[in-house]
């Protein structure tokens, strides 16, 4: 997602001493299938199609090009009317995230921050200037750059909490595109069924054709309800879950930078950051809402 997407960590770059220095993680970004999404969709579709065949039906019974065009074309058009174009294009770009996992464990970022904290403790915050510029994660890079520039820890917190909150709202808006599609598709399916019945009624004098026509007409309803409950709504929830995990990682990074500015011992910083992998934290929006009235632990330190 660029600045709002999944974080990227570059391949290891050797420092003068031959080892990866602070801000230069040795982790590589790898894409692997999100087996929960892939297997879940296979199981759901397989169960439905399998049930149809057990009852004596055939796959051809539900393969209707006109019904698919009505449901998916109508749904996409309705979503276009509802959604600003930047959110619509962003949601389409995030489609691979539903089936692929490119997340980076918090442990990678923790090691990154501890390395930076150790260097800052030895050589001062100013020594992190180049490291801050080399960091690939935008929130960590900006927070550390503000720290190196001498911005007060309270101002760093307010600035970065606002940015994290904006990232969160943007991610949620993109996820809602799929939720909107899940809301429209069943209704569009009913419209398709009604259109099919209109054509059936033209041949009401032929009883045999009426029965077949009614069966075909209801395929549009199947497409609408199935696409909403098997893909659109689950996809929106999956993107929300992945967005929440990214927000939590960024909150952890902000806490780490504030702890570095406060001059905390790297071991203590590690203990604090590792809690993010274990505890359930409120969303960035909720933290930002209370930021004005409460001092964060890093600031107090």
The number of distinct β-strands equals 2
End-to-end distance: 33 Å
Proportion of beta-strand residues: under 5%
Q: What is the helical fraction, as a range of percent?
A: over 70%
Order of helices and strands: EHHHHEHHHHHHHHH
How many individual helices?
13
> What is the count of distinct domains?
2
Mean pLDDT: 82
Key structural traits:
elongated, 2 domains, 301 residues, 13 helices, mainly alpha
Concise summary:
The protein has 13 helices and two strands.
Secondary structure layout plus pairing:
Elements: E1 32-33, H1 35-54, H2 65-82, H3 85-93, H4 95-99, E2 100-101, H5 106-123, H6 129-134, H7 138-148, H8 153-201, H9 207-217, H10 219-261, H11 266-274, H12 284-291, H13 297-300
Antiparallel strand pairs: 1-2
Q: Could you please describe the fold and organization of this structure?
A:
This protein has helices spanning 35-54, 65-82, 85-93, 95-99, 106-123, 129-134, 138-148, 153-201, 207-217, 219-261, 266-274, 284-291, 297-300, and strands spanning 32-33, 100-101. It is an all-alpha fold and 301 residues long. The chain has a two-stranded antiparallel sheet. Helix 2 runs parallel beside helix 10 (219-261). Residues 1-21, 23-27 and 280-301 have low confidence and may be disordered.
